[in-house]
Amino acid sequence: MELKTIKDKIPKELYNILEKEIKKLRPAQEKAIKKGLLDGKNLLVCTPTASGKTLIAELAALKSIIEGNGKAIYIVPLKALASEKYKDFKKRYDGIARVALSIGDLDSADSYLVDYDIIVTSNEKLDSLIRHHAPWLSLISTIIIDEIHLLNDTSRGPTLEILITILRQLLRKAQIIALSATIGNPEELAEWLKAELVIDNWRPVKLHKGVYLDGKIEFCKE
Predict the structure, then answer these.
(1) Which residue from 48, 93, 183, 207 has the least number of CB within 10 angstroms?
(2) pLDDT for 21-63, tens place per residue?
């Protein structure tokens, strides 16, 4: 699917930025659009690393922001990943969306975030923001959950599950975009999220399996 195919479905400001970098959408992105990404549908996206999952989330978030429907919150498990996404979003969307990073003080509602459009935060920080009754939370229209497979992690999983449950109660009309490279039970998770399931195996670089021994690699036959 060519990017120009969705030119009339996304804001002009967003299209003008994306067309400088993208000519053709990747398979997962095309599937997501056909599943209702640009129509506000919840999505669970399960595709390999570097297959274009983040752009799927960006399309939903920026469309909602530019059209005046509300803020977007991007939830990640690690502070380092949050910082990386913050830098990427700020570089790409500076001028059409105000991007903020919230990963620090766990004893604050960060009221200044009311002035920002995209808020990148960690699971633990968002848990704190909810407990401190941050007033701007009610303005969120897009919830993006990166690395959602960590629901199965013994240390971070419980916090993430509670977060998602609370957000679904607080923001009943918000669009949820959940992203992961690997999920053992995608159908079950999609049902829990009330989301459309997007699964694709395409990756930009083909993987080859092999065994390394004594300085030599013997690749498995396909």
Answers:
(1) 207
(2) 999 999 999 999 999 999 999 999 999 888 899 999 999 999 9
Apex 207 CA angle, 206 and 210, nearest 5: 145
What's the whole-model pTM score? 0.91
Model confidence pLDDT, tens digit, residues 182-200: 888 999 999 999 999 999 8
**DSSP code per residue over 89-146:** HHHHHTTT--EEEE-S-SS---GGGGG-SEEEEEHHHHHHHHHTT-GGGGGEEEEEET
Cβ of 72: how many Cβ atoms within 10 Å?
A: 29
Q: How far is CA 167 from CA 85, 90, 144, 189, 211, in A?
A: 21, 25, 11, 16, 45
Distance CA 147, CA 121 (A): 13
CATH 3.80.30.20 fits 3-202, yes or no: no
Name the 3-class secondary structure at 199: strand
C-alpha atoms less than 13 angstroms from C-alpha of 77 in its C-beta half-sphere: 18
Tell me the two tokens of residue 174. Answer: 């918000």
User: In whole angstroms, how far apart are CA 46 and each of 1, 71, 131, 151, 182?
Assistant: 19, 24, 30, 14, 6
Report residue 206's pLDDT band, with 50, 70 and 90 as the boundaries: confident
Indicate the length of the chain as a whole number: 222
